[in-house]
Amino acid sequence: MSLFPEPFKIKVVEPIRLIGKKEREEELEKAGYNLFAIDADKIFIDFLTDSGTSAMSDRQWGALMTGDESYAGCRSFRNLEKSIKDIFGFNFFIPTHQGRAAEDVLFSNLVKPGNYVPNNTHFDTTRANVEANGGNAVDLVIDEARVIDSDYPFKGNMDTKKLENFIKSVGPENIPVGMTTITNNSMGGQPVSMKNIRQTSGIYKKYNIPFFIDACRYAENSYFIKIREEGYSNRSVKEIAREIFSCADGCTMSAKKDGLVNMGGFLAMNREDFFEKFKQKLILTEGFPTYGGLSGRDLEAVAVGLQEGLDEDYLRYRIAHTKYLADRLEEEGVPIIKPAGGHGVYVDARGFMDHIPPDQLPGQSLAVALYLEGGIRTSEIGSVMFAKKDENGNLIPSDLDLVRLAIPRRVYTLSHLDYVAKVFRKVRENKEKYQGLKFTYMPSALRHFTARFGRVKPVAAKA
Description:
The chain has 17 helices and 16 strands. The protein is of the alpha/beta class and about 475 residues long. The strands form 6 sheets. The protein has a 5-stranded mixed sheet with strand order 2-8-7-6-5, sandwiched between helices. A 3-stranded antiparallel sheet has the order 9-14-11. Helix 4 (about 100-110) packs parallel to helix 5. The longest helix has 20 residues, at about 310-330.
């Protein structure tokens, strides 16, 4: 894909500053080597997440000024309702303050202790919300997803044979809802094909299991279908999105991703009985069903942002921008998940920091090294986030140790990406000096947000 110029002009800028290396070392020590605990003004390039970090457009900022802040039945809710029905086609929806709130409403109503929720791959809050209600979050992604350097075009796909076998093994009566995540965040931001979505939907329908899509990055996924899947090159991205959601009974959505906003989300569905149950939980925890934890101005920004996120010039730029960083890192000898995903580049930390064993958290070690060398904040997706414990309490490393460089939408220029590649070069040239890490504090759930770490003393060289 050729590089595509930004389809926008820059109207407002925010200063950023690279603090000195000694100060960065001090910040790491104070934070317990957890980058979530470092203040944003100590960060130079922030790739921690693409969630809620987008630059909003002039139309979105203008929409903020028209927000109707009425407690019930506000005009802004109706504007968002029109946008959601236009794109997703579901009969009912409730707004939430972000995606994890939508997950909480969904799973707290449907999941009971001992239940199972299959998915191609659950991301962190999805898994945590399933497990918080006593359920078991089960990942059934295709085997190709774990082949780092494979160019398979839809590595986010559900393994439909595994899915059907799993349903038979535990019984459909024990699966209150089935999921698919688009794009597949935990496995490199990789897309899911339309064919796979249809096959997955057919299996869920066969066993009368409600099918919900985690739609956080549905626009990027729709664009990948357009450019990679046979028969879709002449379809609009919005048409592709409508076809995707016609396969499902509902969706959860963090609008902080492809909705291009700093706060907002929703839960949409076709079943009225679900809608009535979900509304009651929403009122208890989020707010009245026509605002759901959001101000009227936020509802307006989401209504505009959902439409802007489907603009094909924007999506062409977005995918090319991410691929540019992926190509620059490959030039520097950095092993990454291929092909490049939509919202970020995922580095194989276990391959890059090959002198650090898996039980010494190479992903977190690389994330620390990137901050120390260049003020870059990234997130670990590996043993810190997902590893389990054995019967003795010892950590069982995850299948992959990745570092995600999640690129905020419409925020960084190509020179920022070039700088990131240069920092990787510096880390690669000096990587032997970076030690592994160990947990010094490990919370029971979503541990990556608040865990603390200490350095592991280097192993003495063999004589």
